[in-house]
Prior knowledge:
A hairpin with a 2-residue loop joins β9 and β10. Strands 1, 2, 3, 4, 5, 6, 7, 8, 9, 10, 11, 12 and 13 form a 13-stranded mixed β-sheet that branches. The termini are close together. The protein has two domains: about 100 residues; about 60 residues, no CATH class. The protein is mostly beta strands. The protein is elongated.
Amino acid sequence: xxxxxxxxxxxxxxxxxxxxxxxxxxxxxxxxxxxxxxxxxxxxxxxxxxxxxxxxxxxxxxxxxxxxxxxxxxxxxxxxxxxxxxxxxxxxxxxxxxxxxxxxxxxxxxxxxxxxxxxxxxxxxxxxxxxxxxxxxxxxxxxxxxxxxxxxxxxxxxxxxxxxxxxxxxxxxxx
Length: 175
């Protein structure tokens, strides 16, 4: 399943150790949504950040970022921890942790690789046709939606990355 990026999602967990976490509902953070309220499907991949917090919601030191998988029923697997305040996966101790689903450095590194000396070609309609970087050519595929081209996938380096959109045409998933 494709990785999903979500705005304004923050919850807490009391989970300890290095394993899966259980998300607490409702969220204590004003203006934030719970992961469950977004309608995210079981098996969806998400970038996450977990940070230990005090009773006022202020971070206290331990943190971890990475990519995880929503298991359903408020359970989240820390599939690929990438960075943290200690060796990853971080062994969280008792107390409250804030969990946010956000873009992490690894997501941005992927985009930066495309920018390093890339060569671009264009289709006659003005859409991007190919990107060549570090000896690999990535080809863009489009579908016409409401008379406009919409990027649907990028193929190159032996992989195809599909892009998903919601009913309003907003990009909702990359994977």
